[in-house]
Amino acid sequence: MTVTAAALRALAEHPPTDATARRELYSAAQALMFAVEGPMDTEFRMFFVMQAQAWAAARTTSDLNIFETLAANPDKAWKVDDLGEVSGAEPALLPASPSFKLGLKAHEGGKTLLSLPGFLAESGYRTPVDPSKSLFAKVHGMSIFEKLEQDPQRAALMFEFMAEHRKKLPTWMNGSISTKDFQLSDDDQTAGRVMMVDVGGGAGHQCHAFRVAFPQLKGKMVVQDLAVMVDMIDKRQASAIELEPMAHDFFTTQPIKHAKVYHLRNVLHDWADESAFKILEQLRPAMAPDSAVVIDEIVIPPTGANHKLLDYDLTMMSSASALERTEKQWRALIERSGMKLRDIWIYDVDMQWALIVAVPN
Ligand SMILES: C[S@@+](CC[C@H](N)C(=O)[O-])C[C@H]1O[C@@H](n2cnc3c(N)ncnc32)[C@H](O)[C@@H]1O
Questions:
Q1: Which CATH class is domain 172-360?
Q2: Domain O-methyltransferase C-terminal, which positions (predicted)?
Q3: 265 lines ligand 1 (CB under 6 A)
Q4: Which of 59, 167, 222, 335 is surrounded by the fewest CB atoms within 10 Å?
Q5: pLDDT of 232-285, one tens digit each?
């Protein structure tokens, strides 16, 4: 028997009214969800505590009287700006069609999320942008990365989590995306030019994965991160793949000049635009005319973002006063940093994971 997704959606729009049929459908739908979910779905169900996210989002929505507004005008095609106007919340807090972010979901464990509605209310529903004044900082007394630097246990967990988390998940290193930007000429290699600097690269796991995926691409790699992270890197394993671990604060002058690629995965989504700009601003003067900044991040689609993307967005907001970005937001950030956005290759449709390539203007 084949049941199409369209048939299930039709059923969702007109569910039975009979209580027994509803209960049976509910239980069957749960079984179906478990049967078809992918690894990221499982992660969101298990770790992101969706109930708490939904609660924080729904509570804030309720505080803003948005439910009443929608109920009073059920036929109106509401736009984010309209909702911003009637609720008094900054529209940037309410994007993400087809619904709106606050109407759906909100992480960093229940403790932080439970404080989100009050936190947003206190700010007058302004988009949080300062990590030192993030919800995480309010709950924990310091920003998420300050906490990392002061708490070796937490740093060790983060180090391992980052290295393991996406090992079996889709990656751009599957051969479908050109590696032209990483290719060093013979002269480059003779001159000892660095092929890739993995900025904020944690354990250097992406450099290891890169060597396995592209053994033909020669050249030195450098992984930069906070000293607390770099100190945990196995130096022998690193040197075996021509990888140099380097403690470096990415808000300061980039010491590796003219690398072929400056690579950042899951780094810029930890920071609001002003800080993200400062990180890119350190890279621009270090670039040679043929260098590229290769960013591996989510690109939120203009409409129809699934709940995982919205959860991630609210997670970044509550844990770091940061965000996931749309193409338009990526473009603006990159152009402000003196580069142009040359390519966006989406390599996983579900998570909208993409390789974004920026080159000098
Ligand atoms: C979300 S993790 C991403 C790690 C890795 N790129 C990956 O994709 O798995 C962000 C990384 O940025 C690092 N980081 C935070 N602040 C930093 C700073 N000021 N300078 C350098 N690295 C920093 C963190 O220690 C962490 O390893």
A1: alpha beta
A2: 134-339
A3: yes
A4: 167
A5: 999 999 999 999 999 999 999 999 999 999 999 999 999 999 999 999 999 999
